[in-house]
Amino acid sequence: MSHYVIGDVQGCYDELINLCSKIKFNPKKDKLIFAGDLVNRGPKSLEVLNFCLENKKSIKAVLGNHDFYLLYLIEHKKNNRSLKTILNANNISKIHKWLKKLPLLLKFKINGHNFWISHAGIPYIWDFKTAKKLSKEVQVALKEDSYNLLKNMWGDTPSKWNTKLVKYKRNRVIINYFTRMRFLDNKGALKLKKKNLKSEKNHIPWFEQTTHNLKEDESIIFGHWAALEGKTNLDNIIGLDTGCVWGNKLTAIRLEDKKLYQVRRK
Ligand SMILES: [Mn+2]
User: Fold this and answer.
1) How far is the CA of 127 from the centre of ligand 1 (A)?
2) CA of residue 66 to ligand 1 center, whole Å
3) Measured between alpha carbons, how far is 60 from 217 in angstroms, rounded to an integer?
4) From the centroid of its chain, how far is CA 5?
5) What's the pLDDT tens digit per position in 231-263?
6) What is the whole-number distance in angstroms between the Cα of residue 8 and the centre of ligand 1?
7) How many domains are there within the chain?
8) Using one digit for the tens of pLDDT, what is the confidence trace for 220-233?
9) What is the 35 CA–ligand 1 centroid distance (Å)?
10) For residue 243, what is the domain's CATH number?
11) CA distance 54 to 144
12) Cis link prior to 123 (omega < 30° from 0)?
């Protein structure tokens, strides 16, 4: 039995199937863990979700920003060209139900080592206990009041976490850290406007600060940031978004031995 974490698929179904055959995925024995952004922009988002539903028992996933967007479209009955086939699918209610229950953060303990997985990462201002609690808060809100949560989650403010935040502002900033974060300033505020890698004053890639929080038996795995091409230059923080949807590669890591597997975009 092996655990594989897979980076942003974004509708690249053919590449997902190639990757599964490369790792010899056996749904009876192995686990696939998706680092979020299963859908959007790529050609076969519906096929990716159907694959997840068909193999539900051997699949775990965290929500990415594009998955949240799909949830919003479903619940608010909006349309979108790239996600149209999902929105019109016969099994949309099954898809909706499955997606809505996904967490923002997962942990797997493999051979005594703790792997934490979220779509964009974990900011250094949260220890794991806090991150777990805040992920849970959003999951509960998605369960109890998803319509309003999804309506009010959009926007870049507040830019910084504060324990006193309540309701939608609180959920919005939690979701932004877990699913959209790239750069933080030295106070831990999100710098969501910046997307390129050129160095700029007080814009620090989140992992450069978080790495100092990690103990020897802890690692973080994330997706979301294709421009990094998987390179954080750190041993304990592993980026898996290698830009498959942009014509590059889809990447998986086997947690048992940290071996990487990649397939090229067709
Ligand atoms: Mn993303």
Assistant:
1) 22
2) 6
3) 22
4) 11
5) 999 999 999 999 999 999 999 999 999 999 999
6) 7
7) 1
8) 999 999 999 999 99
9) 9
10) 3.60.21.10
11) 26
12) no
